[in-house]
Structure formats: structure tokens, C-alpha cells
Automatic annotation (TrEMBL):
InterPro entries: RibonucZ/Hydroxyglut_hydro. Keywords: Hydrolase, Signal. This is MBL fold metallo-hydrolase. The keyword Signal applies. It comes from the Bacteria. One of its GO terms (molecular function) is hydrolase activity. Residues 1-26 form the signal peptide. The lineage of its organism: Bacteria, Pseudomonadati, Pseudomonadota, Alphaproteobacteria, Hyphomicrobiales. Pfam families: Lactamase_B_3.
Length: 273
């Protein structure tokens, strides 16, 4: 029997991040500020869902592992985030996004069946900008800087990728190494679901990540890039006394819609495959 999880929450403003001076999205392009109707999460049995099992105005999200998620739209568009040669979904996605930090976040040999391979950096360190539609999915990015192994700075080495489908905004923070500025938050706009690295060392430290997430005010936070349960638990402890609810799911796939976002901000822990 297939199982899936439907989720809910208060929809707050899409906030942002910039290493390049890009204008904020036009107001007409941003997700409208709405309040979800349903005050609680509903759970149903499921495994990873092909797009054919999604209902209209839904988005499927499956945690593959490390920093890789599979995003699926009702129009059949599939995206693998931080696509690499070590952790991959079982299918060849239509879109693959990558980040520069190291080789668990990018691939030198992506599957030739991928239609769009989106690198979150340029080798000359100039900004790379995406503003594209693939079927019923819009994809944009906001660049941030990363540290190199000697402690120096690689400008524009990371992209926060933003995905919009079914009136939902999903942000993948990638290998975020620093706090977001007010300009960053303003450029992102409202983010409904944020996929956040919480290892606390290779990326931003735990206190810094908590600060970023609270500034984003996203209804749903999904941790990634945490290596072991001890690291994950340290991050969750920082939220235990805050306004966030903590939920652990048995299965790696969630189905989101605007109507079923949680009313109370929620950290949802998914098992990686």
C-alpha cells in the first residue's frame, strides 16, 4: 500500500538572500500572502510518489539523503537538488541543481538524460542567475559566498535555489556559510518550505542557522546535511523551546499544498534513503 503525508502551515512572506544585486521578484510573481485553512497535519500511508499520484495544486518532496531532495510537480517536472555522484534519486530528473562546496554537492558527469543542469556558481566567480520556467515549475537562485579549505572566501560559490509550483515557494539553502542580510531576505520574498543544512560546522554554525531560519519565518523547515543523529538532535534542541513544533516522519516523502501547510511553524525530520 502506498503511503504519503500531507502537510499544513501559516503562510508568511517570501524573504531572501543576495551576493549579487538582483532586484526582488516582482510582486505579481511572488507567492500571495495567505493563511492556510487546516490547523493540523494529516498523515496517510505512502512511499515515494510519482507525479501521477499528485492531485492538482500539490507538490511532492522526497528526501533522498545528504542535501539531495526530489521535487515533483503535478505537471510531471522533477528536480534533484545538489545532484552528485554519491546520493541520487532512483529516477533521472528533468532538472538537476548543484553547488560548488565539494563533490557531494555536484557532479562532473551528470546523467545525459537530464534536460537542465543548473550549476549554482561560475568558475570565474561572476554571478550566475536563473529565472526560468520548466513546465509548471519556476526556478530562480540567490547566490551566497562560501569558505575555501584554507579559510578564504569564494565569492558566489553557493546558490540558494528557489522553486515555485502550486503557489508554494521552496528554498534549498545549499551549502550556506554565512548569515543572510536584509537585502537577501527581501530578494527571496516569502518562503513556505526551507530545506536547511544543519551540520553546524561545514556549513553555518547552529546558532547562525537558527537565526537565518527564524528570519525566513517559513512555515516548514526540513533539516538536511547533518551526518548523524547527534548532530541533528543538537539542532533540534535549539528549537525545542522556541515557537516551532518538531515532527519526525517515518517515510521520506511529503505531499504539500497551500491549504495544508501547518498553522504552527514546524520542523519536519525526514528519513534519508
Amino acid at each position: 500500500m502506498m503511503r504519503f503525508v500531507t502537510v499544513c502551515l501559516l503562510v508568511l512572506p517570501c524573504l531572501a538572500s543576495v551576493a549579487w544585486t538582483a532586484p526582488a521578484l516582482a510582486q505579481a510573481d511572488r507567492c500571495p500572502k495567505l493563511v492556510a485553512k487546516n490547523p493540523f497535519l494529516q498523515s496517510l500511508e505512502t512511499r515515494a510518489l510519482p507525479a501521477a499520484y499528485l492531485q492538482p495544486r500539490q507538490v511532492g518532496l522526497t528526501y533522498i539523503g545528504h542535501s539531495t531532495f526530489l521535487i515533483e510537480t503535478t505537471g510531471g517536472v522533477t528536480v534533484a537538488t545538489d545532484y552528485n555522484d554519491y546520493v541520487r534519486p532512483d529516477i533521472v530528473p528533468r532538472v538537476a541543481t548543484m553547488n560548488r562546496a565539494h563533490m557531494t554537492h555536484y557532479s562532473l558527469h551528470p546523467d545525459p538524460g537530464i534536460e537542465h543542469v543548473l550549476k549554482g556558481w561560475r568558475d570565474d566567480r561572476d554571478p550566475v542567475r536563473y529565472d526560468m520556467e520548466v513546465g509548471d515549475l519556476w526556478i530562480g537562485n540567490l547566490q551566497t559566498n562560501i569558505r575555501d579549505w584554507e579559510g578564504g572566501t569564494i565569492r558566489n560559490g553557493n546558490s540558494i535555489f528557489i522553486f515555485r509550483a502550486a503557489d508554494l515557494c521552496i528554498a534549498h539553502l545549499g551549502h550556506l556559510h554565512h548569515l543572510l542580510t536584509k537585502q537577501d531576505l527581501g530578494a527571496l520574498g516569502r518562503i513556505d518550505i526551507v530545506l536547511a543544512p544543519v551540520d553546524g560546522s561545514y556549513t553555518l554554525d547552529v546558532d547562525g542557522m537558527v537565526e537565518v531560519l527564524k528570519a525566513l519565518e517559513s512555515p516548514v523547515v526540513i533539516p538536511m546535511h547533518y551526518f548523524n543523529q547527534g548532530t541533528l538532535n543538537r539542532f533540534l534542541e535549539r528549537f525545542s523551546s522556541s515557537q516551532y513544533e518538531i515532527r519526525r516522519e517515518e517515510f521520506p516523502t511529503l505531499v504539500f499544498s497551500r491549504e495544508t501547510l501547518p498553522i504552527k511553524p514546524t520542523v519536519i525530520v525526514l528519513p534519508g534513503r
